[in-house]
Amino acid sequence: MQFLVDAQLPPALARWISAQGYPACHVADIGMASALDPEIWDRAYGDGAIIITKDEDFATLRTIRPDGPTIIWLRTPNCRRQLLLDGFARLWPQMLDRLNQGETLIELRS
């Protein structure tokens, strides 16, 4: 299981996921900070990565194209980085359970 963190989330989230023992990178790490959603979608699908995003467009696209990458749609208001990381850490076990159950579009609210 590997993760690709979208641009509106901090690179620190990818580092936190990596520290939990899962491969993760931020779009900026792979030169895609300004990439369009379809490019990120295709890259994640090709790499077998799960997209973590705050962008509703990915959730919508996942319902239209069920053959694409798994999407973690993080529904959190704009906040400081540490607050976001703390909230994500609380949701992490639930998210992993849902991924292991085969869900391909997971909406998380913090």
Keywords:
110 residues; alpha/beta; five-stranded parallel sheet; 4 helices; 45% helix
Structural commentary:
- With 110 residues, the chain is α/β, with parallel strands linked by helices.
- The protein has one domain.
- Helix content is 45%, strand content 20%.
- The protein has helices at 11-19, 37-47, 56-64, 81-100; strands at residues 2-5, 24-26, 49-53, 71-75, 105-109.
- Strands 2-1-3-4-5 form a five-stranded parallel beta sheet, sandwiched between helices.
- Helix 4 (81-100) links the parallel strand 4 and strand 5 (105-109).
- The radius of gyration is 13 Å and the shape is globular.
- Mean pLDDT across all amino acids: 94
Distance between the termini: 22 Å
Number of domains: 1
What coarse outline follows from CA principal-axis ratios? globular
Largest sheet, spatial ordering of strands: 2-1-3-4-5
Number of strands: 5
Report the order of strands and helices. EHEHEHEHE
**Proportion in helices:** 40-55%
Quickly give the structural class: alpha/beta
Low-confidence stretches: none
**Radius of gyration from the alpha-carbon trace, in angstroms:** 13 Å
Strand content: 15-25%
Major sheet: size, sense and barrel closure? Answer: 5 strands, parallel
Concise synopsis of the structure shown:
This protein is an alpha/beta fold and 110 residues long.
Task: Write the topology of this structure.
Elements: E1 2-5, H1 11-19, E2 24-26, H2 37-47, E3 49-53, H3 56-64, E4 71-75, H4 81-100, E5 105-109
Parallel strand pairs: 1-2, 1-3, 3-4, 4-5
